Amino acid sequence: MNKWIVAAEENNIRIDRFISDKMPDTSRSYIQKLMKEDLITADLRPVKANYKVREGESIEITLPEPVSLDIEAQDMKLDIIYEDDDVLLVNKPKDMVVHPSAGHSEGTLVNGLLYHCKDSLSSINGVMRPGIVHRIDKDTTGVLIICKNDKSHSSIAEQLKVHSITRRYHAIVWNNIVQDSGTVDAPIGRHSVDRKKMAVNYKNGKSAITHFKVLERFGQYTYIECELETGRTHQIRVHMASIGHPLLGDLVYGPARQPFKLQGQVLHAKVLGFVHPTTGEYMEFETPLPEYFEKLLERLRNL
């Protein structure tokens, strides 16, 4: 069970938003499902999604017992960077989907985790996303943290919420970035026309901040490092495209015609740092650039 007391500054906000702020990696649809099952209460009274919380109220969520998964556990070769009783860090390869969805029921990271971890995965995000507290796109490579119990999941989710986790990505973008470093501070939300895409959205978007610095210039392309202050869907891809520097290989936010026969955006989650849920120690992990990324850099240096 999760329980919170509504603070003065939280008075009169919708309960679904209140809970989303408290549990940032829990989907709105899952929250609404819990409400329909009367598992979310305000002062012990079941509430609907449009209910507005009041200062001093006790908001409680009773999470249902985990349902046995229909997802197949698969013996997959996972590149495990670190593992203990609370967390597991993997280096995700290109073309691997993080969790099952329509059209991707096999070969996902979750399929491999179910085989490797057995029953030792957090259940907070439901049966389709055991252990998953954050994710990276199918064609993005790099380090990802997995939570092996609900205590560690809550701890990492809170660190993500307050932006205390270190997340640094390497990318190659279109066009020459003149300044050596910069910050994109622009809210991100659903695209107003294409709902499958995200966009800078000042009306309905959520705060999003990306810091970037130039690592190397190649004339028509620039090699950069991005540090996330927030973690919105497609954040780096949307932010860099919004300032005229879409990621190389990105067919969603960049040009339709792409050189070098790439498989999706050139983006690698290189560094992840966090406070360990049990020891309280700050830990930081770094993954090497994948082979295709290194070869592309060499090719660009020789143009």
Description of the molecule:
This protein is an alpha+beta fold and 303 residues long. It has six helices and 15 strands. It has helices spanning 15-22, 28-36, 109-117, 150-161, 235-242, 291-301; strands at residues 2-5, 40-42, 45-46, 58-61, 80-83, 87-92, 141-147, 166-174, 181-185, 188-190, 198-200, 209-217, 221-228, 267-275, 282-286. β12 (209-217) and β13 form a beta hairpin.
Summarize the structure.
The protein is of the alpha+beta class and 303 residues long.
Features:
303 residues; alpha+beta; Structural Genomics Hypothetical 15.5 Kd Protein In mrcA-pckA Intergenic Region, Chain A; Pseudouridine synthase; 3 domains; nine-stranded mixed β-sheet; four-stranded antiparallel β-sheet; 6 helices; 19% helix; globular
SSE order, one letter for each helix or strand: EHHEEEEEHEHEEEEEEHEEH
Uncertain segments? none
Dominant shape: globular
Terminal residue distance:
58 Å
Characterize the biggest β-sheet: 9 strands, mixed
As a percent range, the share of helical residues equals 10-25%
What is the correct CATH architecture of the largest domain? 2-Layer Sandwich
Quaternary state of the chains: single chain
**What fold name goes in the CATH topology slot of the largest domain?**
Pseudouridine synthase
Average per-residue pLDDT, rounded, comes to 91
Give the tally of structural domains.
3
Number of E-type strands: 15
Radius of gyration: 20 Å
